[in-house]
Amino acid sequence: MTLYHGSKDIVEYPEIRKARFNKDFYFGFYCTNIEKQAERWATRYGEKRYINRYEYTENTELKILRFEKMTEEWLDFIISCRSGQAHQYDIVEGPMADDTIYNYLQNYLDGKISRSAFWELVKFKYPTHQISFHTVSALDTLEFAGSEVVYGEKK
After folding, report:
1. Are 132 and 92 a contacting pair, CB within 8 Å?
2. Pfam families this protein is in (predicted)?
């Protein structure tokens, strides 16, 4: 399967980096199988950026968690990860809480909307995909296949 990673750099050797903010599936190296989504990731700040391409070969010996769609379990997992709670999975795959969905999620966490209101708001969002790699063994399933330059528009 081909995966994409949007970045300011060519990333031939992916790494897991701790960031200032917790991500949907906690700290990891994030990719998508949707090339346009990787382009949005890469170009959100304008300037010259890159879409890195990888060939992913699943290793069935790894601990993998998949969410086929947004579910209660998916929501609870994201809330836990974004709250700073680590998990024991090598790879996690599923829909992405993009900026809009994240705003709904934050409103839910802050008590501004109910859980049912959250689900009502997100049901019309376009499909997204992310797959995150959380261990060195997980990163070993990726083989760099090249990159291409993309340019974002300054906002």
Report:
1. yes
2. DUF3990
Residues 6 or more apart whose Cβ sits within 8 Å of residue 130: 24, 25, 30, 31, 32, 93, 94, 95, 96
- Cα gap 123→137, rounded to integer Å: 35
Q: In the β-sheet with 64-66, what is the strand arrangement from edge to edge?
A: 29-31, 130-133, 91-94, 64-66
Give CB contacts under 8 A, 24+ apart, made by 112-116.
115/75
The CA dihedral of 48, 22, 5, 99, to the nearest 10 degrees, is -70
What does pTM read for this prediction?
A: 0.88
Closest by CA to 132, choosing from 102, 99, 98, 91, is: 91
**C-alpha distances out from residue 139 to 11, 110, 136, 144, Å:** 12, 35, 5, 11
- In whole angstroms, give the CA distance from residue 97 to residue 78: 8
The pair of structure tokens assigned to 88 is: 């024991």
pLDDT of residue 25: 93
10-residue stretch averages of pLDDT, the chain, 155 residues long: 95 89 89 93 84 97 96 93 93 86 86 92 81 97 97 66
